Amino acid sequence: MPPEERALRADAARNVKRILDAARAVLADQGPDAPLEAIAERAGVGVRTLFRHFPHKEALVRTALRQTVTEHLPPILYRTPDYDPRTAILMVMEAVLAIVDRERNTLAAAANPAALTAEVIAPARTVLGELTERAKAEGTMRDDVTGDDVVRVLGLLANFPWVTPDGDWRRSLALVFDAFNPGTAGPPPPATR
User: Fold this and answer.
1) pTM confidence score
2) Domain 61-184, second-level architecture
3) What's the rounded Cα separation, in Å, for the pair 10 and 5?
4) How many CB atoms neighbour CB 144 within 10 A?
5) Same CATH fold, 61-184 and 1-55?
6) Most buried among 86, 87, 109, 131, using CB within 10 Å?
7) What span, in angstroms and rounded, lies between the C-alpha atoms of 131 and 85?
8) For residue 159, what pLDDT is reported?
9) Domain residues of the chain, as ranges?
């Protein structure tokens, strides 16, 4: 590849990163209805450049959120073997909920925030399932709780930014997490699937 072409590709990659960083910042500052022109201006690019990379706001919002998840969630997921499984489950749940809380305006800018919230949770699904089985084996998690149960509870709590604008999801997480303790309650109804 000629050096000129490499320089153009590097420039385009820098533009994309600046646009994504600007989108998260502008949406956080101005809310979900922030105009794309404000994002382009903050990124230091023209609106046409923004549209060349992201043909509509939904594409920009989804990519910006994916970037946030990619930057913040894997480091937590990779550290889970260093902790007892129950603590690790709580760490993962806190990390996901912190992303949702921090990116509430980015999520709200999406056409379907609930579907996008599910995308934030998706990378943690397998790890939470494995950790749940380990916690059950160690006796620190109710025997009747599944990894899917943990993910569903996380999904419910991830909707808190829309219900509790004060961001008090930590208290709710602590209260709900206690329900996973062995011997704390009767059995749940059977799964419908």
Assistant:
1) 0.84
2) Orthogonal Bundle (1.10)
3) 9
4) 14
5) no
6) 131
7) 5
8) 83
9) 1-55, 61-184
Find tokens 């206690």 and name the residue: 178
The answer to whether residues 110 and 60 touch, using CB atoms and an 8 Å cutoff, is no
CA 97 to the chain's CA centroid: 7
Phi, psi of 191 (to 5 degrees): -65, 145
Query: Are 35 and 85 a contacting pair, CB within 8 Å?
Result: no
Q: Does position 140 have pLDDT exceeding 90, yes or no?
A: yes
CATH number of 1-55: 1.10.10
DSSP letters of the chain? Answer: --HHHHHHHHHHHHHHHHHHHHHHHHHHHH-TT--HHHHHHHHTS-HHHHHHH-SSHHHHHHHHHHHHHHHHHHHHHHHGGGS-HHHHHHHHHHHHHHHHHHTHHHHHTSS-HHHHHHHHHGGGHHHHHHHHHHHHHHTSS-TT--HHHHHHHHHHHHTHHHH-TT--HHHHHHHHHGGGSTTSSPPPPPP--
pLDDT at position 191 is: 67
Q: What spatial distance separates the first Cα and last Cα of the chain, rounded to whole Å?
A: 53
Tokens (6 digits) for 32: 């979900």
